[in-house]
Amino acid sequence: MKNRRAGALLLALVVGTGAFETPAWAATTVISHPLYGESTNLTGQDASGRPDGMDDATWAALQDDVIEYSEIPNLVEYRSILGKTQTAMISANASSMVEMSDALSSAIKDMRDTISDLRDQAESSTSAEEKQALLMQAKLMEAAIGSGSESPKALENQTNSGISTLVTKLKQGLHPSKVALIAGMNSAFVGYQSLVELRDMYQAQVAMYQRMLERSTRQQALGSATALEVQQAQVNLQGAQLSLSKTEEQLRSVRDAIALTLGWNAADTAKVTIGTLPAYDASYMAGRNLEADIAEAKLHNVSYGTAMGTVDKNLTGYTTTDIARRSAEQNLNISMTDLYNAAVQAGTQYESAQLGFQIADRQKASADRMFAAGMVSATDYAGTELQYIASKMQADISAVNASAAVLSYQAALQGILS
After folding, report:
1. 3-state secondary structure of 63
2. Distances from the Cα of 359 to the Cαs of 68, 366, 390, 393, in angstroms?
3. In 79-151, which ranges are continuous DSSP H helix?
4. How far apart are CA 259 and CA 185, in angstroms?
5. Distance from the CA of 227 to the CA of which of 51, 91, 101, 389 falls in 20 to 30 A?
């Protein structure tokens, strides 16, 4: 206790002379901040890299090998190549300041512990003289902690302010790139879903042509099908298999690209699973107010915010800055209006495609019964089944497009506008 008190007093004395030297204590934290919102400490993350305020379920989801659409902003911020670059940049520029802040915080804690010890001794002392001396010593140490511009507390506050300013500037510089990356990953995610629907269609075609080939082969053995018909069935099957193989390769390629960009190692991309889009909510756009949404988007849009924040010392007339501001505002208005109209149109197309699939489904059910009864030819039945498969894919793709259009509109409200 005496050694700790002596060390604290020595620190107060040295700080009072303006010659404080940072002790060689290592920084205990990693510098990073969330895309939106404020951090509750200097780093924004704990020692494991977990962001401030992130709940257990969200943090666990970011550690698994399933990429969900809703996780993209956090993955860009905390796992992506860009996010890691941001962390490295901030750590490289702020590490010495973090060390100093940690050192000051630790020293202040030691001094407060010493003050507590002095007060405990004064409380238990039976000598009025000793009690007064101990309390005076505690009072002087308390003053040494926070009095003056060069006190430990003042230096800690100055250091923390410097870290906050540095982090903010670095994040401001990278923010447009992160917004662009999020928009790109959102688009890639939607593109992946479209490929999934295409793969499912080819899988259905392969299964259908496989059945047709087996049927033609049996009929040839019975003399009711020609070799040409069997050959045609083989060609149809091989064509569908080739299309399926190409689509599966495209899916692997897109998955790997998404995973690599969002921070997975090349050796681990095969483990990654891309999730599905949130289900389309047909009621969402009906409840939107375009003018209010444009006003909301202005609060978050980088291009608009940059233009509005430009300082122009020429106040004598209509300047290039005025033009840039009006252009940014007009571009945002047009983009939001286009997104709004696209979402409404996608919803209409979704409803139409669903109706078309219902009709195709009924036609196929009828064809199933008629084919089983021998009332339609295999060729006619195959045509109906192909129409059913195509109609199902169109309905599923329309659901993807409608959901994606709504999500794009929602993203624009948060400044994610490609």
Report:
1. helix
2. 33, 11, 12, 14
3. 81-124, 128-146
4. 10
5. 389
Tokens of 286: 């009906």
Q: Mean pLDDT in each 10-residue stretch from start to end of the chain (418 residues)?
A: 42 36 32 39 63 86 93 91 82 76 80 87 86 85 76 78 78 85 94 96 96 93 90 96 98 96 94 94 92 89 73 57 78 91 96 96 95 90 93 95 94 82
Instruction: Report how far residue 256's alpha carbon sits from residue 265's, in angstroms, rounded to the nearest whole number.
Output: 10
Helix (H) or strand (E) segment spanning residue 50: none
Can you tell me the distance from the alpha carbon of 243 to that of 160, in angstroms, rounded to the nearest whole number?
59
How confident is the model at residue 274, as a pLDDT?
97
Going by the DSSP 8-state scheme, the letter that residue 274 receives in this structure is E
Query: With contact defined as beta carbons under 8 Å apart, do 71 and 278 qualify?
Result: no
CA atoms within 13 A on the CB side of 181: 25
d(CA 350, CA 341): 14
Half-sphere exposure of 195 toward its Cβ, with a 13 Å CA cutoff? 21
Phi, psi values for residue 274, rounded to 5°: -90, 125
Whole-number Å distance between alpha carbons of 386 and 260: 37
Eight-state DSSP code of residue 67: E
Tokens of 399: 């659901």
CA 96 vs. chain centroid, Å, equals: 30
Amino acid in the structure at residue 369: R
Question: In which element (H, E) is residue 186 found?
Answer: helix 152-222
Inter-residue contact 212 to 185 (CB < 8 Å): no
For residue 253, what are the CA distances in angstroms to 71, 234, 247, 260, 271?
20, 28, 10, 11, 13
Stated as kind and residue range, the H or E segment containing 6 is helix 2-16
Q: Which two tokens stand for residue 310?
A: 């430009």
For the chain, helix (H) and strand (E) counts, in that order, are 11, 2
* C-alpha distances in Å from residue 274, one per residue of 87, 180, 182, 265, 298: 26, 20, 15, 16, 31
pLDDT the model gives residue 39: 45
- The three-state secondary structure class of 198 is helix
Q: Which residues face 67 on adjacent strands? A: 274
Sign of CA dihedral 243, 246, 248, 251: negative
Sole residue written with tokens 């087996």: 214
Contact 40, 46 (CB under 8 A): no
Residue 224: strand pairing partners? none
Q: How many other C-beta atoms are found inside a 10 Å radius of the C-beta of residue 235?
A: 12
